[in-house]
Structures are given as structure tokens and as C-alpha cells.
Design a protein that fits this description.
With 139 residues, this protein is mostly helical. 67% of the residues lie in helices and 6% in strands. It has two domains: 35 residues, no CATH class; 94 residues. A two-stranded antiparallel ribbon has the order 1-2.
Length: 139
Amino acid sequence: MAATSYRLSDDLKRRLAERAARDGVTETALVTRLLDEGMKTAGFPGIIYRDGASGRRAGLAAGADVWEVILAVRSAPGKGEAKIADAAEQLGVSSRLVRLAVDFATENPDEIEHSIALNDAAAERVRKMVEARERMLAS
């Protein structure tokens, strides 16, 4: 990793330090994350990053996470624009937003596949917990 130096205003440095402390990360880690997310979203107006139970993830500013859109597109019948239209209807968003999410996922496939895997793992944990709870309550 290359060392880089930047000059920041006193106010920005203070806000950076406060946010890093609040998030429990180093200032360097926070700057790296914010720059990475900013670079990824710069070409995709309408895509934002937000925190959640599975960590930070890309999402539509007006709706679903990108990984959710991709799953909706994958499960939609047909091909091409038919898939886009069906996913848009499923999610209650415009076809334009579905295309935006697909374009973002196309440029960031590893990130989106990782988010899908995290969701699958969380769903499996919940399924096992529900089964264990049902067994416990049945006895």
C-alpha cells in the first residue's frame, strides 16, 4: 500500500477524528472507506452506501440494496428488459433504478456477490435458530 499525504482543513480533520472514534475505526480506515465508496458511487448517481446488520452496503438511495435488486433480477422471468421490468415491479421502483443497480453491480461484482453471500449466511443462521427454538418449545 502506498503512503500518501494530504492536507485537510482543521474542521474536516476534527470531523474525521470524531466520526472515526464514533465508528470505532482509525482515521486512515475511515478515509480509505469513504474514498473507496465515493469513487465507486461517483459514476452512479442514486447509489449510496449505508450501514446495516450485515455491515456497509451499496443501495439505491430511494430503496433496496443493490444485492436485493440483483436477486430480484436473477429471479425474474424472461430476458433483458423483461427481467428489468419484472424486478422493478417486484421492488416497487422504476426500471431506471433497476438498471442503475445492475450497472453498479456489473462494475463491482465481487462486492455484490459478497453481500449476497452475507445475506444467505444470515438467513441460514435465522433458519437454524427458528428450528432450535421450535424444538425447545416442543418439549
